[in-house]
Amino acid sequence: MCNVYITADPIVYESRTRSLRIHGVVTTVRLENLFWDVLQEIAVREHSTTSQFAAKLYDELTVLRGEPPVNFASFLRVCCLRYLSLNSVGEKPGVDRIMDRGFRPMVVGA
């Protein structure tokens, strides 16, 4: 079973740092390549660039929580996993659904 995971191309779990401009401030985010690929896929669905999409997530999270995210890279990873999870159950994972607090796509015992 582990062979499915351990045979992954090392490039997908190598980290890459990218600069994002959020409200005119350049910030760097370090994520594994696979997460950057998923973010790009989501951004394309949202008709934006990866940077624009990340800034939109940042803004919406700040509005929801009243403060900027403490660990934005972790938040982006969770968004990617939520997107993939929603996609796997056939839902349309737009940004509104990814941010949904009541998100529970996996059925326990299924």
UniProtKB/TrEMBL annotation:
Coiled-coil stretches: none
Ranges of residues in domain Ribbon-helix-helix: 16-84
Presence of the UniProt keyword Ubl conjugation in the record: no
Bilayer-spanning residue ranges: none
Keyword Transferase: yes
Protein name: Arylsulfate sulfotransferase
Keywords attached to this entry: Transferase
A molecular function (GO) term: transferase activity
